[in-house]
């Protein structure tokens, strides 16, 4: 029996439901149910009684609960004791972030993390989605903020923000095609898209370009491999006319008078950002950050007073 199985079992009994335990452990409910079934097969006894209203430990389950709590407590004491020999006992939480992350998405979650775990230091690295997936699987970062949902059982994910993208255009072009509620996507036909290389986030690239093409847009030449789509690149490309770039309503970069940001009519392009971490991780400081990001993300997608500036499905 592994420690992660013990922790999962204890959490299920404490929560009284698989769904509640799955949320607390940041795993999917089917995966947690499979873990409980495998544990019962391994021990050869029924540990849980499953009802429509939740789950309850059997007599054998209560015995395991007491023993598992003792083992986990002793394990945590051992880890803490050894950590004292590494200096101050600090730990590093390595975080991958993409370009154009909403400026206030991380502020409160990181402050909450610092208050709850003052010994945890955060090291942030800018990385593309594809690079973050590779780094997560290689153990080089602990959590990533990515633009597509991961595939496979080795990574868990939670949606933290959705942004309705608008369009950056030369001011004169925008004035010529904008309506009272923004710019229609098909009105951008004939302009080049200032995009990013597909290798950076293949699934998001395919989704985005499929929508653009379905509205009759010719995307122009592919972005150079390795190009960072930083704000300066977007502004320089669109200011002379003949091109458009996409940006969220909360874009933090100052926009010169020669360029205008406008919402897209009907909000056809929605960019999603997930927090992703290894499914095998049981770091409590990481769990605290994920929970705070999930709550903060719910705030991000609530309707704003100006419905043209922020969208929620």
Describe the SSE topology.
Blueprint (H helix, E strand, L loop, with lengths): L2 H13 L2 H8 L3 H15 L4 E4 L2 E4 L1 H25 L7 E7 L9 H10 L3 E7 L2 H9 L5 E4 L8 E10 L1 E5 H7 L14 E2 L8 H13 L16 H9 L3 E5 L11 E4 L7 E9 L5 H17 L13
Parallel strand pairs: 3-4, 3-5, 8-9
Antiparallel strand pairs: 1-2, 5-11, 6-11, 7-9, 7-10
Describe the protein's architecture and organization.
By secondary structure, this protein is α/β, with parallel strands linked by helices. It contains ten helices and eleven strands. Strands 4-3-5-11-6 form a five-stranded mixed β-sheet, with helices on both faces. A four-stranded mixed β-sheet has the order 8-9-7-10. Strand 1 and strand 2 form a beta hairpin. The chain is elongated and about 75 Å long. The relative contact order is 0.15. The C terminus is likely disordered.
In short:
The chain is of the alpha/beta class and 313 residues long.
* Mean pLDDT across residues: 85
Across the major sheet, the strand order is 4-3-5-11-6
Report the strand count.
Answer: 11
Shape: elongated
From the alpha-carbon coordinates, what is the Rg to the nearest angstrom?
24 Å
- Low-pLDDT parts are 299-313
Give the helix/strand class: alpha/beta
Q: Share of helix among residues?
A: 40-55%
């Amino acid at each position: 029996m592994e420690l992660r199985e013990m922790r999962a079992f204890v959490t299920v009994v404490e929560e009284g439901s698989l769904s509640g335990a799955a949320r607390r452990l940041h795993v999917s409910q089917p995966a947690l149910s499979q873990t409980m079934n495998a544990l019962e097969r391994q021990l050869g006894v029924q540990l849980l009684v499953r009802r429509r209203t939740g789950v309850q430990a059997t007599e054998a389950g209560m015995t395991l609960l007491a023993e598992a709590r003792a083992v986990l407590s002793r394990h945590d004491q051992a880890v803490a004791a050894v950590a004292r020999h590494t200096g101050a006992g600090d730990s590093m939480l390595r975080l991958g972030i993409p370009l154009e992350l909403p400026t206030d998405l991380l502020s409160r979650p990181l402050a909450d993390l610092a208050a709850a775990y003052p010994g945890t230091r955060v090291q942030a690295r800018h990385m593309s989605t594809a690079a973050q997936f590779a780094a997560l699987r290689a153990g080089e970062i602990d959590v990533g903020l990515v633009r597509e949902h991961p595939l496979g059982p080795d990574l868990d994910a939670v949606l933290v923000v959705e942004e309705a993208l608008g369009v950056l255009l030369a001011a004169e072009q925008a004035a010529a095609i904008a309506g009272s509620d923004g710019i229609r996507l098909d009105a951008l036909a004939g302009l080049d898209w200032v995009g990013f290389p597909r290798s950076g986030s293949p699934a998001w690239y395919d989704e985005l370009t499929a929508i653009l093409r379905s509205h009759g847009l010719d995307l122009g030449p592919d972005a150079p491999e390795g190009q960072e789509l930083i704000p300066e690149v977007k502004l320089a490309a669109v200011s002379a006319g003949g091109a458009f770039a996409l940006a969220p309503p909360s874009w933090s970069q100052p926009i010169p008078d020669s360029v205008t940001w406008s919402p897209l009519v009907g909000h056809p392009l929605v960019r999603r950002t997930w927090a992703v971490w290894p499914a095998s991780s049981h770091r409590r400081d990481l769990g605290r950050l994920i929970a705070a990001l999930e709550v903060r993300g719910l705030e991000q997608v609530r309707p704003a007073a100006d419905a043209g500036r922020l969208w929620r499905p």
